[in-house]
Amino acid sequence: MVSAEQVHGAGVARVGRADGGKVVPGADALISGESNLTLVVRVADCGPVWLHCKKTGAIGLVHSGRKGSELGIVPATIRAMKKDFGADPAEMLGLLGPCIRPPHYDVDFAAEILRQMKAEGLGEIVDSGLCTASDPERFFSYRREKGQTGRHFAVLARG
């Protein structure tokens, strides 16, 4: 497995099995075309975004909160998958997982992530519709718990 450092930026890193066990500095998104490798990001209110190209098999995993969404981390990841692996956005699935949403947060970055995926031409977009701050039985929430909370691990692997 390989994980991203997550600096709330727009850094995308291409990784492979040789990177196993590493934390990639400066990255909020990981992409790979290799099998038998697990990509990992941690979230507590930010949005995990899973990307998969059905045509090439390429995968991407993104940590996108307010800052990353403003900086365009999701479009940057989709474009990197196109450039590095020949991924076709029309053949891609994008899934937005649980993240904080209004009225628990005044910035609707979830809507911005979905808008960005649509603007990039993704063929299939799925929104979990789940809010981390509204369901304390199921989710950690950095904002709700004032920084004293756990993290969810989002993982993605290509078989």
What are the defining features of this structure?
159 residues, alpha/beta, CNF1/YfiH-like putative cysteine hydrolases, six-stranded mixed β-sheet, four-stranded mixed β-sheet, 3 helices
Q: What this model shows, in words?
A:
This protein is of the alpha/beta class and 159 residues long. It has a single domain, classed as CNF1/YfiH-like putative cysteine hydrolases (4-Layer Sandwich), CATH 3.60.140.10. It contains 3 helices and 10 strands, in the order βββββββααβαββ. The strands form 2 sheets. A 6-stranded mixed beta sheet has the order 2-4-7-6-8-9. It has a 4-stranded mixed beta sheet with strand order 3-1-5-10, with no helix packed on it. A hairpin with a 5-residue loop joins strand 6 and strand 7. The mean pLDDT is 94.
Total DSSP E strands: 10
The largest sheet, given as strand count, sense and whether it forms a barrel, is: 6 strands, mixed
Q: Which word captures the global form? A: globular
Overall mean confidence score, pLDDT: 94
Task: Provide a short characterization of the protein structure.
This protein has 159 residues and is of the alpha/beta class. It has helices at residues 66-71, 73-85, 109-119, and strands spanning 2-4, 12-14, 23-24, 29-32, 38-43, 47-53, 59-64, 92-96, 124-127, 152-157.
Question: Mind sketching the topology for me?
Answer:
Blueprint: E1 2-4, E2 12-14, E3 23-24, E4 29-32, E5 38-43, E6 47-53, E7 59-64, H1 66-71, H2 73-85, E8 92-96, H3 109-119, E9 124-127, E10 152-157
Parallel strand pairs: 1-3, 1-5, 2-4, 8-9
Antiparallel strand pairs: 4-7, 5-10, 6-7, 6-8
